Amino acid sequence: MNDQDNQGNLNKNNNSPSLKQSDPEKYAYLMSEAQAPYRGLRRFIYVGFGASGAIGAFIFFTQILAGKGVEDNLLNLLVQLGVIGLMVFLFKWDRKKDN
């Protein structure tokens, strides 16, 4: 038998129901993952970087309140707030694309 005959036999013997009919919940999950791959990983990164920015902003803010290197820490605080703002924007944009 050649490969074409084998392929024909596989197609003829495939009487199993499709994934769409057998498990619609799994099918919906797989379709959503195919349309937006790595969505969960992206959101995890957004939350992780946002949390990192929040911790950094808190540290720099407390150093500014203590009066330690106000000029340097003010610039660092602004960078951390920018990171937080960027992550919030990306997270919201990612959610908006889903709808």
From TrEMBL:
Keywords: Membrane, Transmembrane, Transmembrane helix. Residues 1-22 are annotated as: Disordered. Pfam families: DUF3493 (PF11998). The chain crosses the membrane at residues 44-67, 73-91. Residues 1-20 have a biased composition (Low complexity). This is DUF3493 domain-containing protein. The lineage of its organism: Bacteria, Bacillati, Cyanobacteriota, Cyanophyceae, Oscillatoriophycideae.
